[in-house]
Amino acid sequence: MKNIIEIMKEFGIEVPEDKQKDFEKKVLEHYKTVSDYDVQTKKLEAAEGKVKTLTDSLDKFKDVDVEKLNGDIDKLRKKLEDKDKELADQLAERDFMDAVKESIHAAKGKDAAKIIKLLDIETLKASKNQKDDIAAAVKAMAEDDVTRGMFQTGEPEKKGTADVIGGISGGSGDNMDAQMRAVMGLPPADTKGE
Question: What is the pLDDT of residue 194?
């Protein structure tokens, strides 16, 4: 890039040496070089390109009904809240029923499904202290004369035991031979095998 003073000399214009620095300063303040102009032009073209891209993007939404869109968003939020509540209710129901079954098991209930049918489930669900109230309700059933039979008391009945060789002892007192034949899959002794 040629110095402005040299360019002026080519055209027969000379600036006194003591004024050259001030002259260059004034020229640089008010005029730009071609390379500076090109840089600014490229920046302007890039900015115009961004504006066109944004305008094209916004044109896609020019026919959108914002009120309808907001209404749709509100409906979707409501559906999501309803699903969240439904899931929370399902989890609470599962946890409640697990607590009921745990209390029935702890009280040695024989048939949990039948015992559950006799409990006042809605009252227990509304309870502030569910776990303790469920345990108390199950205990009351285990102690009640009418429902006591639904719970095991004491040791469970022994059906009989087998030794290492396969012998059977205990049980109902039936014939030992008949028990051995039954275990081995043989017909009873008083009938003929085929």
Answer: 44
Sign for the pseudo-dihedral over CA of 4, 6, 12, 18 = positive
Coil vs helix vs strand at 109: strand
Same domain, 139 and 110: yes
Residue 194: closest CA among 186, 178, 184: 186
Mean pLDDT, to the nearest integer, of 160-170? Answer: 53
DSSP-assigned letters across all residues of 143-173:
HSTTTGGGB--SSPPP--EE-TTS-EE-TT-
Question: For 73-116, what is each residue's pLDDT tens digit?
Answer: 999 999 999 999 999 999 999 999 999 999 999 889 888 899 99
Task: State the Cα–Cα distance between residues 167 and 180, nearest whole angstrom.
Answer: 7
The answer to whether residue 41 sits within a structural domain is no
Give the pLDDT confidence score for residue 47 in this predicted structure.
Answer: 92
What angle (nearest 5°) sits at the alpha carbon of residue 63, between those of residues 58 and 67? 105
Q: How far does Cα 45 stand from its chain's mean position? A: 48
The region that residue 161 occupies, defined by phi over 0 for left and psi between -120 and 50 for alpha, beta otherwise, is beta
Question: 128: which DSSP letter?
Answer: S
Q: How far apart are CA 158 and CA 142, in angstroms?
A: 22
The domain tally of the chain equals 2
Give percent of the chain above pLDDT 90: 28
Average pLDDT, the chain: 82
- 85 located within any domain: yes
